[in-house]
Amino acid sequence: MPTLEHSAPTRNLALELVRVTEAAALSAGRFMGRGDKEAADQAAVNAMRIVLQTVDMNGIIVIGEGEKDNAPMLYNGEIVGNGSEPDVDVAVDPIDGTRPLAFGRSNSLATVAIAPRGTMFDPGPFVYMNKLAVGPEAKGKINIEKSITENLRAIAKAKGKSIEDLTAIILDRDRNNEMVKEIREAGARLRQIPDGDVGAALMTAWPDSGVDVLFGIGGTPEGVIAACALRAMGGEIQGKLYARDKNELQRGIEAGFNFNKVLTMDDLVSSEDVFFAATGITDGELLQGVRYFGDGASTDSIVVRGLTGTVRQINATHRMDKLHYLNEEIY
How many helices (H) and strands (E) does the chain have? Predict the structure, then answer.
């Protein structure tokens, strides 16, 4: 595995990555409420790919949107960046929350993360993971192998609250029904969301989001991206791979994956030298969505650097007549 001294980025690449997420958000934002998830995702991918190629890095997409046969999506194994140093792993989610975007709902984001080459967990074809995420106050107090009730007690104690004051967030999926039942029985407040568990994980570490903990089975790629951000923001995420059926479990075991192993922060991204950027597409607790006006638009983004723990919020105004590559993708 590459060492920090030999392969880690030394400048704040998050400030370059935010251009990538801004481009994706500006393109995808045009499709808010139009009911076409595929068109929105394609617009975000096209814009993201164009700007990724301008970033000073030699990147390989570890967390993308499938294999090469599924191009023109940003596929696993695709080379991105302009080929210069540093050598990095790249994780992308052009739209975290395609359904909320398609139906004009909240908390849709464009996200990207990078880390030194060889430090990101590659889940291969196994796309689901049971996840537990918290912010800085409850870091070190959670254990995904304990019950939800036990974790809620530990989080409440760490935050100086009662369980009844905590708010949990979870994807609204049948596979999470038993967890939903236990959260309710424990007395915690609950938000069930249709999509967007990268943003949901980030809310646990975001001041005034009103979210204390993320539970539930969601995407493994989203778990890796969230780990990059939470590592820098001082939070914590744990996960366990989840097989949808016996055949998938057997294939995973044969491929060397351990579905009983607890995936810690170090397993999901083993370097502190991570960078993360996200731009709001629709309004949410984290970020404001894209605003279009006359000849321009505004965006709201966060950029995070792991080595320093710095989190910046960036409000930008864009002249659409100057962004010719985006205009070509949208119109």
Answer: 11, 13
- Which residue bears the tokens 């192998």? 145
Cα separation, 32 vs 65, whole angstroms = 21
Single-letter amino acid code for the residue at 97: G
C-alpha count within 13 angstroms, C-beta hemisphere, residue 227: 30
Of the candidates 126, 128, 158, 129, which has an alpha carbon nearest to the alpha carbon of residue 141? 158
- Residue 296: count of CB within 10 angstroms of its CB: 15
Say yes or no to pLDDT of 1 above 60. Answer: no
Q: Residues 264-274: what's their mean pLDDT? A: 95
Q: How far apart are CA 306 and CA 228, in angstroms?
A: 8
Three-class secondary structure of residue 274 per DSSP? coil
Q: Both tokens of residue 139?
A: 């870091």
pLDDT the model gives residue 327: 54
Torsion-angle region of 157 (φ positive above 0: left; ψ -120 to 50: alpha; else: beta): alpha
Measure the CA–CA gap between 105 and 284, rounded to whole angstroms: 9
Q: Which residues lie across from 90 on neighbouring strands?
A: 61, 114
Q: Which residues pair with 291 in a beta bridge?
A: 298
Amino acid present at 146: K
CA 56 to CA 301: how far, in whole Å?
Answer: 20
Contact 225, 120 (CB under 8 A): no
pLDDT digits (tens, 9 = 90+) for 59-113: 999 998 765 444 457 888 999 999 999 999 999 999 999 999 999 999 999 999 9
How many whole angstroms separate alpha carbon 331 and alpha carbon 255?
44
Identify residue 111 by its one-letter amino acid code.
Answer: T
pLDDT class for 2, splitting at 50, 70, 90?
very low
Query: CB atoms < 10 A from the CB of 231, how many?
Result: 26
The SS3 call for residue 256 is coil
Measure the CA–CA gap between 331 and 329, rounded to whole angstroms.
6
Rg (CA), the chain: 19
